[in-house]
Design brief:
Elements (H helix, E strand, L loop, with lengths): L10 H9 L5 H19 L2 E4 L1 H16 L11 E5 L26 H8 L3 E6 L33 H8 L5 E6 L5 H7 L2 E4 L20 E6 L2 H11 L22 E4 L10 H15 L4 E4 L6 H21 L10 H11 L3 H22 L4 E5 L15 E2 L2 E2 L10 H6 L3 E8 L5 E8 L4 H12 L2
Parallel strand pairs: 2-3, 2-4, 7-8, 7-9
Antiparallel strand pairs: 1-3, 4-6, 5-6, 5-12, 9-13, 10-11, 12-13
Helix pairs in contact: 2-3, 9-10, 9-11
Length: 454
């Protein structure tokens, strides 16, 4: 790399440097690999690095650029992929010993699209076992730490992807979000993190879903502009995913109506989080939006009951179909398997019926708002080796308290976006969350752009 130019940390910066001839794609790949070598031993974001494959892809990008055949803004840009997303030929361990030797022979559709547009995949990022935790640790690769403070967690389950981006190893990474697994790590590490509408980013050829359609491919970037670039690259219909053919694409209304809330019943939340949501609401009101305070449009207890039934059954099915039948599960996953095997067909069916009722209730309670503004996480990052924060708002917290503001979005299949909102007094990042009706990602981007100017 030209010693006169520092490596850009954003997609936009990298693309501009490539276009100006200041760096090559191979330079960017080498720099990223060197950054991983330097930082990963302490952060543990990447669990598999394909240096040879990345360098070969980068050289191919350079050849295209020299021949004026660039594939787009992502051509030659390094990136990471969460270890529960299929990349052909790379390990997909799902953070579990049971899949330790598994290597899929086909890319998931989002990975395929990135490769078609010249993205340079450096490797796979860490996830808790079966991506079923709000912190990132597993018995295969160990604990992932928050680059802002190595004693803290980056959250989960996309903690490896968040740590890779927040530390500057890569400018963006793919993850998944079934209950907040993109948005919570984004909040805890100061990133933009999007969970799109169900079907907006098509999926095929990956692990079976553990909770019906709760999970979506998610995106993590340092800037909103970068998020738009990646979103454009991987979103859109594909015949191999029928759900992707039915997602509406309305434009953003003007003015945008924003409903906001910062508390859900008696659920715990830090005062700092409440203040940041209120400050964001005031800013949006002064920026031309119609802003109204509202009650949370969901019953958090109902969401948790549905989630508990669907995920335990899903985990049991996944484990029973795993390639390795040895008793290699962590205690937490083994407990979920036992619970899932004990769910009757009637109870499972009732959870599905309850989910449809919940979706109707959310739609009705939403009102006339285009976008909702609310917390992402009720607290900031906690100790790296603890599965959940011990306290929130100065009170003892339940293990599932972190999901208060996120999992309902997955239950309803809606698009949502974490926007960084500064830090706690001790420097820990904090975010606020925007949620829109199905298909209205453009409204999320427009409101987020207003908040970025705050």
């Amino acid at each position: 790399m030209n010693s006169d130019h520092a490596a850009p940390l954003t997609i936009s910066g990298m693309a501009a440097s490539l276009a100006a001839g200041e760096v090559s794609a191979e330079d960017l790949a080498v720099h990223a690999l060197e950054t991983i070598d330097r930082l990963n031993p302490s952060v543990n974001a990447f669990v598999h690095v394909d240096a040879d494959g990345a360098l070969a892809a980068a050289r191919a990008a350079d050849e295209r650029r020299q021949g004026s055949r660039r594939l787009g803004a992502l051509d030659g840009i390094p990136l990471g992929i969460k270890d529960n997303i299929y990349v052909a030929g790379m390990p997909a361990t799902w953070g579990s010993r049971r899949w330790l030797d598994f290597r899929p022979d086909q890319d998931d559709l989002s990975v395929e699209r990135l490769q078609q547009q010249g993205g340079v995949i450096l490797g796979k990022t860490n996830t808790p076992e079966l991506a079923m935790s709000f912190y990132t640790d597993n018995a295969v690769f160990g604990l992932t730490r928050n680059p802002h403070n190595l004693s803290l967690t980056p959250g989960g389950s996309s903690g490896g992807s968040a740590a890779a981006v927040a530390s500057g190893m890569v400018p963006f990474a793919l993850g998944t979000d079934a209950g907040g697994s993109i948005r919570t790590p984004a909040s805890l590490t100061g990133l933009f993190g999007m969970r799109p509408t169900n079907g907006r980013i098509p999926r095929a050829y990956g692990f079976d879903p553990l909770a019906l359609d709760f999970q979506a491919i998610g995106l993590l970037t340092k800037t909103l502009a970068d998020l738009r670039l990646v979103y454009s690259a991987v979103s859109g219909p594909d015949l191999r995913d029928p759900a992707s053919l039915t997602v509406p694409s309305p434009g953003a209304p003007s003015p945008i109506r924003v409903g906001w809330f910062s508390r859900v019943g008696e659920e715990l939340v830090d005062d700092v989080v409440v203040e940041r949501v209120q400050r964001a609401a005031r800013w949006l009101a002064g920026s031309g939006c119609i802003v109204e305070e509202m009650e949370a449009p969901y019953d958090v207890r109902g969401v948790r009951a549905i989630w508990g039934t669907l995920t335990t059954v899903g985990v049991a099915l996944a484990v029973d179909g795993a390639p390795d039948a040895a008793e290699t599960l962590t205690d937490a996953i083994r407990s979920m398997v036992d619970a899932g095997r004990g769910v009757s067909a009637a109870d499972y069916g009732k959870a599905w019926i309850d989910l449809q009722a919940l979706r109707r209730e959310i739609s009705l309670a939403w009102g006339e708002h285009d976008v909702l503004l609310l917390p992402t996480s009720p607290t900031a990052a906690w100790a790296a080796d603890e599965s959940a924060p011990a306290t929130i708002g100065g009170r003892d917290a339940a293990p599932n308290a972190v999901s208060t503001y996120t999992t309902w979005v997955n239950a309803a299949g809606l698009p949502a976006l974490n926007v960084p909102a500064g830090t706690y007094p001790d420097g820990r990042p904090i975010g606020v969350q925007l949620v829109a009706r199905a298909g209205q990602e453009e409204s999320l981007f427009q409101v987020a752009e207003l908040l970025v100017g705050n």
